Amino acid sequence: MSIVIAGSGAFGTALAIALAGPQPVILLGRDAGQMTKVEQTRRHEARLPGATLPDGIMATANADCLADADIVLLAVPMQQLGAFLDRNAASLANKPCVACCKGVDLQTLSGPVDMIAQRLPGATPAILTGPSFAADIAVGLPTALTLACADTDAAKHLQEALNRPKLRLYRSADTTGAQLGGAVKNVIAIAAGACIGAELGESARAALVTRGFAEMQRLATALGAETETLMGLSGLGDLILTCGSPQSRNFRFGLSIGKRDPFDASITVEGAATAQALRKIAVQRGLDLPVLDAVNALVTGQTEIGAVLQSLLSRPLKEE
Ligand SMILES: NC(=O)c1ccc[n+]([C@@H]2O[C@H](COP(=O)([O-])OP(=O)(O)OC[C@H]3O[C@@H](n4cnc5c(N)ncnc54)[C@H](O)[C@@H]3O)[C@@H](O)[C@H]2O)c1
Ligand SMILES: O=P(O)(O)OC[C@H](O)CO
């Protein structure tokens, strides 16, 4: 069984560390110099400082390895996924392709599973998602994730092939719910961070996250997701983790907005582009999503934190 993880960022590297052992794992990056260094030093200080790569991982920038893979995990950022799939379509054509990214593509308004299905009609699209910080996985802390795949037999096979003692996988057939939970929670985490950054308090954050969760359910069920999926690891579970921890980059990005501080643009913040994509979907579908809309307005610079707060608090009174 050959597993290739495409995308040698923090998450791809952490997954490689967790999965290597019973069989070798190939970690595929795009920078040949960096991958040679990772292969030789057994460390990836740029993306996952402090972690050591076990012997079972081979790091490479040679995408030829995709052709021989039995399972491909796609850990490139969401806005780069389409280009990666197009570039490697011939190698990926008939394989199980497991998205490990979270978001909605701004160009096509597709989530990662739908994007794999659209661009690789012969592949088996799946997603691995849920509450998981790369740094936790890399040091072997226990983590539970959702493995969603519409094909039941393929889902069982992937669950068995990717489950590990410290990486517990729960199976689901609801790829729509799994991909939307992971996408929306990042946007709500930006709102939660902004709330704390603007010193509005923990009570306000709890209210915002709860109302944001209602929006996640409204949006995702309108697009065909099952409510149970959103109540699970890929929805509520990841929302709790990301909105409550400064380890989250989306939360920290929100903090910087709330404090009116600059933020390092090189840091991956999936919720920023996804907020814009979700706004387009909401307009198309006529959905009322005030928290998600507010984050879109903030990240696109249409408004600032004080005005957002005023607008959220002055909405008409309604039933919960
Ligand atoms: N870091 C985490 O804790 C974590 C946990 C769960 C899920 N994720 C998800 O994993 C995905 C990747 O996040 P990350 O934390 O690894 O990001 P990262 O910023 O650490 O790394 C991103 C990696 O993608 C590579 N990349 C960028 N464009 C590429 C392209 N066109 N082709 C190939 N590679 C490309 C970069 O070189 C980099 O190695 C995101 O969708 C994120 O939401 C991250
Ligand atoms: O650092 P973030 O905000 O990208 O979150 C990482 C993971 O998605 C948490 O499950």
TrEMBL record:
Glycerol-3-phosphate dehydrogenase NAD-dependent N-terminal domain ranges (all copies): 3-154
Substrates-to-products reaction catalysed: sn-glycerol 3-phosphate + NAD(+) = dihydroxyacetone phosphate + NADH + H(+); sn-glycerol 3-phosphate + NADP(+) = dihydroxyacetone phosphate + NADPH + H(+)
Alphabetical UniProt keywords: Cytoplasm, Lipid biosynthesis, Lipid metabolism, NAD, NADP, Nucleotide-binding, Oxidoreductase, Phospholipid biosynthesis, Phospholipid metabolism
One GO-annotated biological process of the protein: phospholipid biosynthetic process
Binding site for NAD(+): 7-12, 134, 249
GO MF assignments: glycerol-3-phosphate dehydrogenase (NAD+) activity; glycerol-3-phosphate dehydrogenase (NADP+) activity; NAD binding
UniProt binding sites for sn-glycerol 3-phosphate: 102, 130, 132, 185, 238, 248-250
Gene3D superfamilies the UniProt entry points to: N-(1-d-carboxylethyl)-l-norvaline Dehydrogenase, domain 2 (1.10.1040.10), NAD(P)-binding Rossmann-like Domain (3.40.50.720)
PROSITE patterns: NAD_G3PDH
Places the protein is found: Cytoplasm
Residues the record lists as binding NADPH: 11, 30, 102, 134, 249, 270
InterPro entries assigned to the protein according to its UniProt record, in alphabetical order: 6-PGluconate_DH-like_C_sf, 6PGD_dom2, G3P_DH_NAD-dep, G3P_DH_NAD-dep_C, G3P_DH_NAD-dep_N, NAD(P)-bd_dom_sf
Domain Glycerol-3-phosphate dehydrogenase NAD-dependent C-terminal: 174-308
Coiled-coil annotated residue ranges, if any: none
UniProt pathway: Membrane lipid metabolism; glycerophospholipid metabolism
Binding-site residues, substrate: 102, 249-250
SUPFAM superfamilies with a match to the protein in the record: 6-phosphogluconate dehydrogenase C-terminal domain-like, NAD(P)-binding Rossmann-fold domains
Function: Catalyzes the reduction of the glycolytic intermediate dihydroxyacetone phosphate (DHAP) to sn-glycerol 3-phosphate (G3P), the key precursor for phospholipid synthesis.
Record family assignment: Belongs to the NAD-dependent glycerol-3-phosphate dehydrogenase family.
Protein known as: Glycerol-3-phosphate dehydrogenase [NAD(P)+]
Lineage of producing organism: Bacteria, Pseudomonadati, Pseudomonadota, Alphaproteobacteria, Rhodobacterales
